[in-house]
Each structure stands twice: as structure tokens, then as C-alpha cells.
Amino acid sequence: MPRDAPLVVGLVSGSHVVNHAYLLLFAPAFSLLSADFGVSLAQLGLAVGLINAVVTVGQLPLGYISDSYSHAAVLVGSLAVGTLGCGLAALAPSYEWLLAAAAVMGLGVAGHHPAHYPLISAAAPDAYRSRAYSAHGFAGALGLALPFAVVPAAVALGFGWQAAFGAIAALGAVYTVITVLVVRRLPHSITRAGAEARDGEESVVDALRTVETTADRLRLLGARAAAYFRTIAGAPLILLLTALWFVNSAAIWGVRAYAATLLDVGYGLDSGTASLVASAMLVVGAVILLGGGYVADRIGPTPMLFVGYGSLVVFAAALSTALLPALAAVGVVLLLAATVDISRPARATLTDLASERRDVGKNFALMTIGISAGGAVAPPAFGYAIEVAGVYAAFTGVAATAGIALLLSVSVARAA
């Protein structure tokens, strides 16, 4: 393996921990924030939604900057801005301040995928590519869990949510400094891989410097964006993968949001035990994700799609019948997240291989839009299904969604 590959994978994996911690910073403190600011859970949900909305809007612009200028600059900027937002959240004296902090955090988090994936793509050799993406995904899972550990610990030690948010911001600040020092050691062939792949073509940043008026700059950006979308329109595999990431996100959010509800309402477990099983499900999924990268490097990425989505169809359909004994239902739920996580390195590898070097950041930004859109659609849709038809019907919907992902995987395999 090239000397710089482990360093790059480790660097972006650490950044993944930090950025995902910002993404779910507010969730474990909902009750504390509600009491301090006198707002409803719906209003706090709006703050989380604002983070995701800014992340979605920022994807393609930051993908352009990453590809045209520097992946490393976007990596450092993402960490710095996200850390600023987290620090502002720790100091929030009001709900309105918290919303402003959420917007700043979202702007920071928006840059991490457009920087991470191109850096891994440039540094990791083909034989280790899926394993590199699996390490990155595992680190992201740890980041999602970090606020759920730090906030209760701070409260148990007699501190409040402010101290917990401040501790996470301090972690981000230290990691930002480390990242600045490390990226200076990396060659331009990694940190500016997209820009160097243009073979002498003028980058967006360089082109903008040559025009004088705002109208000309907007026309230039519009022309470059149109050229990118024409490229995408002629790349069916990228379009198929974007659809697959969206459907995958919808399925996994249905599982994450309502697995505990299924065990509680559908199979008679008490709510505390059901929540514990759902948390353990996420840990099992993260561990199996690491194995998914190793296997994908051995047998290729497309078989992992069939294994993962085929398993989810079977497991979700079995749970939706209400015929399983409670103990069997617990065992199946523990494996639900793993069915999706096992194919995550394969999806990343396929996106990487389908991308021109100059478009890696933009293409992964496009995939992230699919992820965000699936996360926005699925929880209310499956929640509505539970209210109208019951929790079993919702998991019939999860099975059907996994079936769509399986059909898309067949199309992806043919296109690949």
C-alpha cells in the first residue's frame, strides 16, 4: 500500500467522527434544551432539520470547490466552520441563537463528504479501496454515537448540555489543528487530485479571476454547472447510484427510526429494552460494515449489494408478519442495520470507479444529496404508515423499499 494511504484514510476517518458528532449534536439534549429555552420537541427537530437542509444545499457548490481547487482546503474549512458552529451552540442563550449555530454547523458539515471521498479515492489503491471506505464509514458511525455518550456523561458529572457541547467543540478544534499540520505533508497529487486531473484546463477558481462583473461570474458558474449535468446525463451509472443511495437511505432511516417501536408495540418488549436493542443494532451494523469492505475487495462490490438488500427484504418481511417469537424478533432486529451497512463500502467503491477524477467530489456530493433526501422523506412517511395502518405495515414498507434497492442493484451491476 502507498505510504500516504493509511495516513489519508486515518485523517478523513477522524474528520468523519467529528462531523457526524456535529450532525446529531442536539438530539441527546432535546429534553434539556426544551426545558431551558421553553420550546417544543418539534421546534428542536427544526434545528436538526436546518443542519441537514444547509448540508444538502451546500453539497454541489463545495464539491465544485473540492474538485477545482483543493480537497484539503475543503477538509480543513469544513472542520473549522463546523467547530465554530458547535462552539456557538455551546454558548447559546436562546433558541434563535441555537438556530443560527445550527446553520453554521450545517455549512461546516456540508464540506466533509466532498472532501473525504476524493481524498480516499486519490490515496487508496484499488485492492484496498473498499476497506478504506469501510474504515471511513465505521468512523462515521462512532461520530453519530459520540453525542449520545458525551451529553449523558456531562449531566451525570453535574455539568449541563453547554459543557457537553463545549467538550465536543474542543475536540473539533484540536482535530482541526492536527488536520492543518497533516495535510501540509501530503502531496498535491492527493490534496488537489481533481484540479490536477484537468490536464491544463482552466479551473473554475482560475476562470472566475479572469472575469470582472458579477453577471459574468454567474454566467460562467452556470455554464460549468450545465456542463457537469450534461456529463451526468450521459453517465447512467452515476444516475443509478444516486437513486440507489436515496432508496438505501430511506430504508435504513425506516429501520433506525422505528426498530424500537416495532419491538415495543409489535412484539411486547418494554420500551427501555427495545431502545437498548435498537442501539445494539447500530453497533452490530458498524462492526459488520468493516467486514463488508474486506469482502468487497475480495469478490467485487456488486455482489455485496445483492447480499445486503436481499437480506433486508427477507428480514423486514419476516418481522412484518408478526409471527416471530419475541426472542427471534430481537435477533433479527440486531441484524437489520447490518444488512444495509455491509454494502456501504461497495456503494462508495462503485461511485468512485464510475467517476472521472475531475468529478469525484461533485459525484459524491450528489450521492450525499440522495442520502439527505432519503433521510428527510423516510421518517415521516413510515411514521404516517404506523399511525394509519400499524407498525407491521411500516416494516412491509421497509421490505418493499429494500426490494426497490435490489432491483436498482441489478441495473447497477449491468451498467458497471
Q: Estimate what percentage of residues fall within beta strands.
A: under 5%
Overall average residue pLDDT: 85
The rough form would be described as: globular
CATH class placement of the largest domain: Mainly Alpha
**Helix-strand sequence:** HHHHHHHHHHHHHHHHHHH
Under CATH, the topology of the largest domain can be stated as Growth Hormone, Chain: A
At CATH's second level, what is the architecture of the largest domain? Up-down Bundle
Overall number of strands? 0
Structural class assignment: mainly alpha
State the distance separating the first and last CA atoms: 25 Å
Uncertain regions: pLDDT < 50 for 5+ in a row? none
Rg, please?
21 Å
CATH homologous superfamily of the largest domain? MFS general substrate transporter like domains
Q: Which percent range fits the helix content?
A: over 70%
Structure description:
With 416 residues, this protein is mainly α. The protein has two domains: 4-201, Up-down Bundle (Growth Hormone, Chain: A), CATH 1.20.1250; 234-415, Growth Hormone, Chain: A (Up-down Bundle). It has 19 helices and no strands. It is globular. The protein starts with a helix and ends with a helix.
Summarize the structure.
With 416 residues, the protein is mostly helical.
Could you list some keywords that capture this structure?
416 residues, mainly alpha, Growth Hormone, Chain: A, 2 domains, 19 helices, 84% helix, globular
Produce the secondary structure layout.
Blueprint: H1 4-23, H2 30-37, H3 41-68, H4 71-90, H5 95-109, H6 112-123, H7 129-156, H8 161-183, H9 188-191, H10 193-196, H11 204-209, H12 214-233, H13 236-266, H14 271-299, H15 302-320, H16 326-341, H17 344-353, H18 360-389, H19 391-415
